[in-house]
Design brief:
The structure holds 3 protein chains of 3 kinds. Helix content of chain A is 38%, strand content 18%. Chain A is built from 13 helices and 16 strands. In chain A, helix 7 links the parallel strand 6 and strand 7. In chain A, helix 11 packs across helix 12. Chain B folds into 2 domains: 240 residues, Rossmann fold, CATH 3.40.50.970; 69 residues, no CATH class. In chain B, helix 1 packs across helix 7 and helix 3 packs parallel to helix 5. Chain B starts with 44 loop residues before the first helix and ends with a helix. By secondary structure, chain C is of the alpha/beta class. Chain C is built from 21 helices and 21 strands. Chain C has a 5-stranded parallel β-sheet with strand order 5-4-3-6-18, sandwiched between helices. A 5-stranded parallel β-sheet of chain C has the order 8-16-9-10-11. The longest helix of chain C has 20 residues. Chain C is elongated. The chains are: A alpha/beta, B alpha/beta, C alpha/beta. At the B-C interface, helix 1 and helix 9 of B face helix 18, helix 19, helix 20 and helix 21 of C.
Amino acid sequence: MATTSVSKKRMVRINGCVASAQAAKYADVDVIAAYPIRPYTATMMALAQMVANGELDAEYIVADSEHSQLSIAHGAASAGARVFTGSSGVGVQFAYELYSPISGSRMPVQMMIADRTLDPPGDFGSEHTDALSTRDMGWIMGWSCDAQEAFDNHLIAYRIGEDPRVLLPQMVCQDGFFVSHITGDVELPDAGQVKEFLPPYKHPYPLDPRHPVSHGPQIMPEQGPPLQLERARAMEESMAVIEQAHEEFEKIFGRKYDPWLEEFMTDDAEVVFFLQGAHAVTARFAIKHMRDKGLKVGMVRLRTIRPYPTDRVNEVLSKFKVVGVIETNMGLGSVSSGGSLYAEVCAALYESQKRPLILSFMAGMGGEAIVLKEFYWMTQKMVDAQKRGKIEKRTHWVGFEE
Amino acid sequence: MATIEVQRQILPILGSPNQGARFYNPELPSSEPFVPGHRTCAGCGPSIQYRMTSKAAGDNTILVGPTGCMYVANSSYLCTPYNVPWAHTQIGSAGSFTAGVAAAYEAMIRKGKWKGEFPNIICEAGDGSASDIGLASISGALYRNHDCLIICYDNEQYANTGIQASSRTPYGGMTTFSPPGPLVPEGKKLFPKDLARMMAAGHPHCYVATASVGYPIDLMNKVRKGLNHKGAAYLMVYTPCQKGFVYETPRSIDLGRLVVECGLYPMWEWNPEKRAYDYSFRPASMRPVSEYLKLQGRFGHLHAEHIASLQKFANEQWRMLGVQLPEALIQAADAKNLVNMASAAQAEAVAQTI
Amino acid sequence: MSTKGTRIPDWLTVPFAGITPAPSQEKGQDLFPTGNWRSIRPVYRDKLPPCNNACGTNEKIQGYLDLVKRGKYLDAYALIKEDMPFPSVTGRVCYHPCEQACNRGQYDEAISIRAVERFLGDLGQALTHDVVKAGKPNGKKVAVVGSGPAGHSAAYQLARLGYKVTILEKSPKAGGLNRGGIPDWVLPQDVLDREIERLVELGITIKTNCEVGKDVSWDELKKNYDACVLAVGLTEPNSVRAEGENKAGVLYGLPFLRDIGMGTSKVKLGPRVAVIGGGNTAIDCAREALRQGAVEVTMITVEANPKEMPAVPEDLHDMVEEGVDLMHGRAVTAVLGNGKVEALQLHPARFSGAINASPITVDKDAPAQRFAVDNVIIAVGQHASLAWLPAEFKNERGTIKIDRFGRLGDTKFFAAGDIVQLGSGQPLMVVNAVGDGKRVAFNLDKVLRGEALQPRTIPIDVIVDLNRMNMTYFPHFPRVQQTLLPPVSRRRTQDEVIQALTEEQAVEEASRCFSCGTCNACDNCYLVCPEPCIARPERSNGLYKILVDYCKGCRVCIEECPTGCLEGVPELDFDTGVVRMDTAFAISPGLHGRQAEELRKLGDRPAKNI
């Protein structure tokens, strides 16, 4: 079988894209739908080679578009196959039509996304807008911040999405370049561990001629709401499954993740950064640097944005005086006129008795790294707001203001 | 890698009903993958096609239905006419969803996750899906040669949205997007896309054929040939739409014959082994296009010159099939010999000279 | 949790993700009974094919042709035997009014029905045991007087009904007109013998050399039997009422043929023979004369040309081919010669009425023509010999007087065949006699069982209009021709002229049948229905079921029915308050829950066999 060549646990130094490909291989996927777009495409390149080498037995399909990629994934999952696909940037948008049908038909398709700025102009750098724009389509969605986490998240996401209580598609996101193309140490597990963690995919009602069913029929208006309610319930009920999956993962693989939020140096912090994805790595370094200077700054990293852990966000962020949201996405004309993460944070904190002040930082845009100087600048803005007791303005375009 | 060989079905070709003197349809399978109780219009051509296709395919079949009449009017939630697995997909996903299902079965059978013969995987796309929005996805599926059959049930328009022109709508066909008016007396000004030839030319390794509900056994056999062909196959089937064409419902099959006899729907097969067209199908007679047009309300506004244009178009189709044109059909392509549809009697007189 | 506390009411319980289980093949789905969209309903109504209607005994011709084309020969033979005791005979001798009526004649060429009948008859001849069995004995005895076509048919049907039947035949051999009126080269004796054997196998007693009025009296018949069928036929030849008709060398048609048939003929024909008459018997006589040694045979008819002759065209054609000359528009006014015929005196003549049974007008003023002959055979019809019959049952035509049920007054005597049909407007053909015998047998049965008698049923709807059928399904296809012996080799031999069809030919010819107005299980409606709401538990004629719950009334099936047996009937008047679209979108209460339950149980369902 496919995984014979990877049966023993070992450490490798690979980038995020390859880590994702390795995860797909360990998950023994049946159908892969590829279409080239940078930067995610390196994952598909790696998978193509694995299939060519005979390391993975899967149908590797070069689709004619991202729309087709997702349709192929939808069809294959409907037939009962475990499916892997992915995209970046405008590619994610091209497939947009399929996101709701896939979650609506409850097909646990997995999609790897290496973020890329949307056009215009052509930019390979990472912005989360591509994936975030689909956040309300019924997909389980979260960001990894390094290659190892990316690898792990893929396996965890399959386990969650294919759970009979959930049956929802998943977007496993990583920042383009910062994760996708930067190598890191990744522990590849023993095949037996994966087998223990991830049971074979079995949809209860696949397209099987022996048990014929119709998928996705037309409905009458009054029949729509119960279907939507059912999908909403599945999303909500997945939260318990997500927590359980992470516990199980820790037990088998020995790596512990909080499914919702990573807190870094928040114990006595007064101001914190709130962010997703790869900028957490630089943020950790910057926070240590600022801590040395005596600034009481910390970081809260959102690991899973859908389903959104509203209560956890409320509980955690209520401890602080100021929260600075690092957006890395575009929300043109949005609540903060900056990014869209701000609104998510505000909404979670609305019912808090001790609401912190909230700022939105347009930083790391276009795939730029957020440098130490900018972390200092942003921290200063938060400290100023804390002193003043109110914010000067909601959104700051970092690097473009004094 | 230890893999399981994929077993494929071979469906027998049905004997022709008109061999010699006999009219008696060959023995048809008893399974009914398509049952009544759906909300298609009375006399629905695509539905007739669905019935024949599913009958030819049998029970080990999976149907894919991109958005179109056969989704909207057929697959009602809590009640479905499909007695085999059926899945809706988006109108632009005809080829890709089907490819996904086919790929899944290849992998699952090979990997021992599903046991049995490879199922017939049939996509039933309307001409809107097949010739417009889903063209690329179908082309992709054909190019990649998934073992599936993609059928375009061609009713020459977007029907369930309320009769809009598609790139298969014939010249002169009235739709809500191509209404006739003083400045555009003919209604639709463009001639249809030659979809099936496009598929044959672009994917020569595929079995490609045109068919019509007017020739049921021929249609069913083409379905079976397409399914038996290892790899992708494409079938374009003429399926009249009572609502859009505006004709009396009993004529559904009759129109399916007339459109072929009038040269407006050439019937052929593309032989992927020989890389050649097979033009051997010949209708019982050749007729002027006016015989076909006069039965349909959507052509009621046509003037003599428009009918002549359509005749010219039909004559070109006949020539492509290598058919010698009778003088009367050449005459009928001259507007001087024709009158408006409103007084089609003289056109009929032309017809009788053939 | 925003969905906490939400409740989906039972009637909207959701199957997982809207996934809907497949309907059952038998029932379809039950949410949209689209039948109420319909204003016209298709129904099967078999019409009578013209061939069945034209046949003297109403053979189910379409029915057996349909069986033959599907290779079910034995079934076809059994079907033909319902109405026809001896298809091997009629398959050779019948003048096939069915073929004249055949709708295919209007399209290309009529079906060669007789040839197929012969194919089936020969098949039946070869069977060790016939498919037909005698009925359960009912203890009643019936006498049938005469073993010609009518008597044979009546005896056969009565035996099937359980009667103990005795046939009284005055000749030394049974067969009547079949034996005595039809030459061997049309109907070989052994074929007829085998059919007579079949009667004996049915338990029928045949008494030959037993003539009514001589060997058995009217009263004896009345006393010894519960009932009696008189099928004595027409035994006495008509005269041409010419001067000198009693001269030696003057022969009469039927006795001439009968003596040859019985093997008792002492006739030796001279080289020149004239045959008087233009009918089928005359033709048989002319052709027989050639075989009996005549060199020149001339047929002299009153009819002005061959088209007017009351004869089957192909027999006429064969006769001319064999070398018989025709002389039209002449009547014999005297037989000339000294004790023996030497010549005929002929005058121009024509029928005075429109039909050829009408009186003849002879132009005696015209110069007489002398026509030298050695023999003359007069074949201008026959009449009955009824001296033994009580006068009250005789009529002015010289035949037996019967009511419309074939019964003599209120006696238990019935009569059938030529003896009642002469002059009644019915053609005097074997097949008509068979039909008459059959109907009379059924009536006799009814009388003895005390049931009401029924006259012959009148067909309501004979389909003769090709527009009611769909001709697109029938390619033009030539009629299969039976092989004939070459004309030169036919003279001086009693070998059968017309050769049998091979099995392939019979199937091909039967396949040409349109099956007018009658369902032949072609499956077309079943295939073209868009719903599809035409169910077919098994493929069999007329066993198609239209599921009216779903039929939308598009009428494609009616339009595409090749045979015209489907038709549309208007539905109820919907103006009377019926809301037609109502149930089209009505969701029955509890349906969601039921469907959800079905989906949950899907895994428990046995897997569909594929």
